[in-house]
Amino acid sequence: MEHNCRRSSLAVGLLVLTVCSLSGCVSRRLTIRSDPPGALVEVDGRRIGYTPASLDFTYYATREITLSKVGFEKLTVQQPVPAPWYQIPPLDFISDNFLPVQVTNRHDFTYRLTPQRLVGEEELLDRANGVRTQSQVGP
After folding, report:
1. For residue 93, what are the CA distances in angstroms to 60, 61, 87?
2. What is the pLDDT along the chain (139 residues), one digit of tens a residue?
3. Residue (of 48, 53, 57) closest to 104 by Cα position
4. Please, what are the domains in the chain?
5. Nearest to 27 by CA among 88, 100, 104
6. DSSP-based helix, strand, coil % in the chain, nearest 5
7. How many C-beta neighbours within 10 Å does residue 109 have?
């Protein structure tokens, strides 16, 4: 009788271990798009590629996103990436470890780039003279 009880406990333990190891988790993915496409993307100072660009992440936070493209103004944005309700502590422990399926949490952000303004020769000379005047030392 004791042998059967031990065997049943071992079987239940293995079953629980198997179910836990097959449990899903939360996958987090951030996708950056631009209008026009093809801008170089940096997230928190790390280059990730050209738009549309995606990266997986672990923690929800405000991300510094920088987009640059020849002929367009450089754009830097402080972009909050909010956590869904099931990723707020203590629920995140359950959703990360015990969900029976994998959940993918996607965040898509699209930014419009502004065409670079061409500066006329007269304005450029005025700026240069202003810098020259400010940089002169002495009387």
Report:
1. 15, 18, 8
2. 566 666 666 666 555 555 555 455 888 999 999 999 999 999 999 999 999 999 999 899 999 999 999 999 999 999 999 998 888 888 778 777 887 878 888 999 999 999 998 877 888 888 888 888 887 765 5
3. 57
4. 25-116 (2.60.40)
5. 104
6. 30, 35, 35
7. 14
Residue with tokens 């990730």: 48
8 A C-beta contact, residue 67 and residue 34:
yes
- Among 6, 34, 5, 22, residue whose Cα is nearest residue 100: 22
Residue type at 25 in one-letter notation? C
The answer to whether the CB of 85 falls within 8 A of the CB of 103 is no
